[in-house]
Amino acid sequence: MDKRQNKNHFSYFSFLDMPQKDPCQKQACEIQKCLQANNYMESKCQAVIQELRKCCARYPKGRSLVCSGFENEEEEKLTLKPTAK
Questions:
Q1: Domains in the chain: how many in total?
Q2: Distance of CA 27 to the CA centre of its chain
Q3: For position 34, which CATH number holds?
Q4: From CA 80, how far away is CA 85, in angstroms rounded?
Q5: Around 27, how many Cα atoms within 13 Å sit in the side-chain half-sphere?
Q6: How large a percentage of the chain has pLDDT more than 70?
Q7: Domain range for residue 41?
Q8: Where does residue 43 fall: left (phi above 0), alpha (psi -120 to 50 degrees), or beta otherwise?
Q9: 1 DSSP assignment
């Protein structure tokens, strides 16, 4: 492979490694706007929080950084859930 081919090869893989836009970023921003507008009263922002949860449910675990909090919350619920005897 000559230098020109090597450069193109590297560029192609650099493109693949570029971070992708978070698919649920818009919903996360809407939550921040809502919280700021409502003096950080979470109860006033349940509708936008639910929209983020819906967005997170559409993507595989780990695909959206903003969804990681919900993913961790779900894992904690599962580990803290008492087992039936």
A1: 1
A2: 10
A3: 1.10.287.1130
A4: 15
A5: 20
A6: 71
A7: 21-70
A8: alpha
A9: -
